[in-house]
Write the structure tokens for this entry.
Amino acid sequence: MSLPNQRWYIHPPQPELAHQFAARFEISPIIGQLLVNRGITTVEEAGMFLEPESLSLPSPLTEFADLAVSVELLQDAIATQAKIAICGDYDADGMTSTALLLRGLRYLGAQVDYAIPSRMQEGYGINNRIIEDFHRDGVSIVLTVDNGISAYEPIALARTLGLKVIITDHHDIPQQLPPANAILNPKLLPETSLYRGVAGVGVAYILAVTLAQALGQTNSGIRQSMLELFTLGTIADLAPLTGVNRRWLKRGLRQLPKSQIPGIQALIQISGLQVREQGANSNSSVNPVSPLSSGKTMRPDDIGFKLGPRINAVGRIGDPQVVIELLTTDDMGVALERAMQCEGTNRERQLMCEQIEQEAVEIVETQFVDAIAEERVLVVVKTGWHHGVIGIVASRLVERYGVPVFIGTYEEDGQIRGSARSIPEFHVFEALEFCQDLLGKYGGHRAAGGFSLPGENLMALRSRLSEFAHQCLQLEHLKPLVKIDAQADIHQLTSQLYQQLSLLEPCGIDNPNPVFWTPNVRVVDQQIVGKGHIKMTLAQQVNNTDYRIKGIMWRSRDYFPLPGRVDIAYKLRENEFNGNISLEMEIVGFRTSPTPQITEKQTSLTFEYQGRQYICGLYQNGTSKELRIKNLDGNILAVQLEQQTGLLGTNRENAKQVDISQPHLQNLIQTALSVLKSFQQINN
């Protein structure tokens, strides 16, 4: 029986602060702990998080140094009917950015067209061919979206030809900036800026709204349409859902179900997305800080797993023009045709991903698996893979092996084109810069990137990436990381708790969906369903009552059958079947449970401290209470709470006296006491 090779990080409970938030906002202490885990330390910060509209938002004109210049250039172009050309990108961020600016600029009276480079023939970003085509067509202003910050040569060519250039991008800043007339990139802002996390579509939205305001054209219809496209692109691009993103996305997710953009309605229809009424299935008496308006709403997962993949699939293996037409047409018939094309392309993409993943795993298992700990990075290349989908496969390999993955395929000219995906401790863009003399084009950010290189440089790249990985990765990093917010028992997983979780939405990057864990649950039944998923029923006995819940673990055939008792890490989700809605667990991790049975006389709990697992409990020793902390090697630290020394050993006969005022012991003791105190408060 195999088990996931995971490392669990369990946020240390802070019950006092969690209960302070719970009392102030009339929420569960569990929700209070989730706020603590997101770095919130005061009631004021919690209020702004729960109600983003209360944020004091500075004008983007004061944040983006070149925004005023950009607006002035576009105002002049609209006034003189000079041609504007948008160069977009073929991912969801780039395509929604392009559609947003096309809709916005056309509404404002601009003469505007667009181009997107061919993924297959040209790769990412604006290039000399596009600049030359724009110049031949009489374009005056080139406007890049979601690209351009690293395109020094094409931008220099445009300036030489007399074109004005506005770069809007959000990718990491290169050592040399292109000679554009204006550059709008949140990575140029201080890290404390509320605008720092916007994606390419966010920069496009800021530019379009600011331009509309400067022209006195603030019609709510066009602004709502642009907000909807911002919402689609931001979530599909996995941008951080903090700062202005959080504020605007809460609005956009409420707006999307009633969108006036035919393409969005067509996507919702074709994907089979069921948009639920806000507040449905709620018996909760929770008093949210600011109740959402009545009506339907979406969640980020609706975009991330339903709408976004259908858009992204076209950019990966199809013609991006299909998506641009989908999102800019006002004809519902055309929109439905384009949505059907997206659906067919997405099915083709799914089949490709499955095949390439199988082949990639076979290569890793036969050639590299024994060297992962030494190399600390995986570089997998094979002829015949479609480079439009290998990024998805790279993400799955990261989940499977827990190391950064660089995956590529050979082109006809002997070049390798690839994608990279990473783990938190490894910065992809910095790794690519470390290898820049071996590469052709490259770009990206901390978590992901794209690159090309001559085939003869492959072995050198593998060695160089391993050298970089050794600078930032320790052996303990080479396991998939499961970040856990809080411990919860099955009987606490109620519809009321689930409703309160919506106060944290929208969830995504930097505000992840909460992950809970429950120790020592029984696996009552389990079966393989679908394409290798494990469906199960889990049980836990609390106070002589048996509580049960259904669970699903995706793509987990390799771990079947599960052991009879496990610790589980999971997200909560609603499952609708035959009109009935129930809560179930989406399992993201499990491990063999070392937790002893809880009895009426004593309580033993597992916790994690500095990457190691411990069991702690309070016991009666004569007239005093004694805290005992045991590690997995069998060593026990026994401390009578009123004493300054403790006993350390595998049993009392061989135990040695230790000074518990030592910082590492004192911190371990305080963590154990916090865990026990939190458990007692939750169960009282």
